[in-house]
């Protein structure tokens, strides 16, 4: 659609000064950019944002576009810094943003200029952005012709632009179950800018959330199929607390009331990763939602059904996702666990280890 030589040449024409000024405003909306930033430019075209990013001191830019012709032109304009792919400079990747490999992240910021409405599923695009941004990282969604101009384009060419740009309320609804916060929204006749952030430390408004209950029998698939032992909590008595926890993956601290003849370490407070939801990748039907706590401690006994467990939830990593298979799920579990371990070492989350709900 955007890959013909005529379109590429059109993209290479100098932009009017007022458009360049608006592009500068888009990049100015991203806080904290500098030499250490890593920025992903989605739907980069021939790179209209790149000079403005470089003017902010950004040296490490990954330009992504589905068009091979656009990427080839970018490579002419901005030769690769080196063959290893790790040096600062403008690197390119041709393909759908939704398929960008995880190893290309995390990034400091993501730019979606004049491209967000081209996604068929806006929520899926926002989820992908949340997964590849580092904690505290920002996503800017923008259009330098404004939302009304874009809406007209959507009406005239729905196959090319399947979605209109969301207004503020619609955007808030789109991110309701995502680890994203709306931090800036500009909706002017000739400029649309929405800046979202993955909260530092993956904090969420209800945190810390305290759960306490009995370890019950789960479906058995966590340990058997994935090798990830979990303590399942009975969700029925915890309905009020669960209203503060959208389905997804969380991290925090957990303490098991281990039997007296177990080692003292089994009764200590340990890091944990928790899943709240229906586990769509491994479940076969409409099983009831579960609370699965993966305590990052090797207990001296494998079974502790009936024991009491206390959990303090500190951060929200991601919503529940249906993966294509168990290998993909397991890879993501490893990523979630790594995130939990590192974030729980940060001062704000680490302080919850001595939360008043725990026995010291």
Main β-sheet, spatial strand arrangement? 3-2-1-4-5-7-6
Architecture per CATH nomenclature, i.e. the level-2 architecture of the largest domain: 3-Layer(aba) Sandwich
Helix content: 25-40%
Report the average pLDDT across residues. 90
Label the overall shape.
elongated
- Domain unit count: 2
Q: SSE order in H/E notation?
A: HHEHEHEEHEHHEEEHEHEEEEHH
Number of helices: 11
Rg, please? 23 Å
Distance between the termini: 63 Å
Structural class: alpha/beta
| Superfamily (CATH H level) name of the largest domain | Vaccinia Virus protein VP39
Strand content is 25-35%
> Could you name the CATH class of the largest domain?
Alpha Beta
User: Which residues form runs of ≥5 with pLDDT under 50?
Assistant: none
Describe the sheet with the most strands.
Answer: 7 strands, mixed
CATH topology of the largest domain: Rossmann fold
Number of DSSP strand runs? 13
Protein name: riboflavin kinase
Enzyme class: transferase
Keywords: ATP-binding, Flavoprotein, FMN, Nucleotide-binding, Transferase
GO molecular function: ATP binding; riboflavin kinase activity
Question: What is this structure's SSE topology?
Answer:
Elements: H1 5-12, H2 17-28, E1 38-42, H3 50-55, E2 60-65, H4 68-77, E3 89-94, E4 107-113, H5 122-132, E5 133-143, H6 147-156, H7 168-174, E6 181-188, E7 191-197, E8 209-216, H8 221-226, E9 231-233, H9 239-242, E10 248-256, E11 269-277, E12 290-295, E13 308-319, H10 326-343, H11 347-350
Parallel strand pairs: 1-2, 1-4, 2-3, 4-5
Antiparallel strand pairs: 5-7, 6-7, 8-9, 8-13, 9-12, 10-11, 10-13, 11-12
């Amino acid at each position: 659609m955007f890959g013909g030589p005529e379109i590429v040449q059109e993209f290479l024409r100098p932009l009017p000064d007022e458009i360049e000024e608006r592009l500068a405003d888009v990049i100015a909306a991203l806080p904290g950019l500098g030499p250490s930033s890593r920025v992903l430019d989605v739907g980069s075209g021939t790179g209209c944002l790149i000079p403005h990013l470089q003017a902010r001191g950004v040296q490490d830019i990954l330009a992504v576009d589905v068009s091979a012709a656009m990427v080839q032109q970018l490579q002419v304009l901005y030769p690769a810094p080196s063959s290893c792919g790790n040096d600062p400079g403008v690197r390119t990747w041709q393909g759908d943003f939704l398929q960008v490999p995880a190893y290309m992240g995390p990034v400091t910021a993501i730019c979606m200029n004049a491209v967000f409405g081209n996604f068929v599923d806006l929520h899926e695009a926002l989820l992908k952005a949340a997964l590849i941004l580092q904690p505290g990282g920002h996503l800017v969604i923008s259009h330098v012709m404004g939302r009304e101009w874009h809406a007209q384009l959507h009406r005239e060419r729905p196959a090319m632009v399947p979605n209109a740009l969301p207004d503020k309320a619609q955007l808030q609804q789109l991110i309701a179950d995502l680890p994203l916060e709306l931090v800036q929204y500009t909706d002017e006749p000739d400029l649309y800018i929405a800046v979202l952030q993955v909260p530092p430390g993956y904090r969420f408004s209800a945190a810390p959330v305290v759960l306490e209950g009995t370890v019950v029998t789960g479906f058995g698939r966590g340990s058997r199929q994935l090798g990830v032992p979990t303590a399942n909590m009975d969700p029925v008595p915890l309905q009020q607390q669960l209203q503060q926890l959208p389905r997804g993956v969380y991290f925090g601290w957990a303490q098991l009331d281990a039997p007296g003849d177990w080692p003292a370490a089994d009764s200590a407070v340990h890091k944990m990763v928790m899943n709240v939801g229906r586990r769509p990748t491994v479940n076969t039907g409409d099983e009831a939602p579960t609370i699965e706590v993966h305590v990052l401690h090797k207990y001296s006994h494998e079974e502790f059904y009936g024991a009491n467990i206390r959990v303090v939830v500190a951060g929200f990593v991601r919503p529940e996702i249906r993966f294509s298979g168990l290998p993909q799920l397991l890879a993501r579990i490893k990523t979630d666990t790594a995130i939990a371990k590192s974030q729980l070492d940060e001062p704000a989350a680490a302080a919850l280890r001595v939360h008043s709900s725990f026995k010291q």
